Amino acid sequence: MEAYVKETIIKPGLLEICFFHPKHNSLPSDILAKLAESIHAAGQNPEVQIIILKSGGDRTFCAGASFDELISIEDYDTGKQFFLGFANVINALRKCPKLVIGRVQGKAVGGGVGVAASVDYCLATKYASVKLSELNVGIGPFVVGPAVRRKIGLSAFSQMTINADHFFAPDWAMQKGLYAEVHESAEALDAAVMKLTDYLLSTNPEAQSMLKKVFWEGCEHWDQLLDERAGKSGRLVLSQYTKETLKKYS
Fold this sequence. Notes:
The chain is α/β, with parallel strands linked by helices. The chain has one domain: 2-enoyl-CoA Hydratase, Chain A, domain 1. The protein is 50% helix and 18% strand. The protein has ten helices and ten strands. It has helices at residues 29-44, 67-72, 76-95, 111-118, 145-162, 170-176, 186-201, 205-215, 222-236, 240-247; strands at 4-11, 13-20, 26-27, 48-55, 64-65, 99-104, 108-109, 121-125, 130-131, 181-183. Strands 1-2-4-6-8-10 form a six-stranded mixed sheet, with helices on both faces. Strands 3-5 form a two-stranded parallel ribbon. Strands 7-9 form a two-stranded parallel ribbon. The longest helix is centred in the middle third of the chain and has 20 residues, at 76-95. The mean pLDDT is 97.
């Protein structure tokens, strides 16, 4: 099955954006670009009030950066541009005037944690453990870091960043504020997502948009910040350590 980003109107006012990649929903540049474009377009669509962001499949929510693409990076500009793909998705979620509800059915790794941290309300299953694995390959969660830190705080973000080989349990992620709810199954998760979105569709869209701005106060400089962070990752991905480590995954 080929990778995709799909938009589906579930009911009047409710749009679902779903991304998929056959390699555990990893995110290459083209999928990142389509995802950012879909989020931006949904935010500008007057027919859309609430957005659900999810991934396809029953297992991994998102494995983060595409290792196939990381391995192929040979120069700084290409590296920075790749990591800007994640920055563009995070900033699209930040700037979107509509509330975005995240549905996380399984594990979230690296950039996948950044996506989960950038939605406005995130629901998950008991299988949705999280890991910031970037240090394992010689880089760091520089681009997703501001979004994750905003949600769970510096202490928890530092724990995830340093203990990069450890999956943190969904209950831990909920305790720290990454997840608002953790459910027993995908079916229970879907029921909870629909219950919440039905409620939100009954409330004032103008109030929601104003609240969204309040939620993201203090992040107005992120266009520049995430650009700088993408540069850090773009340099590190060219390091000898990272090149040698990535060969193990080729």
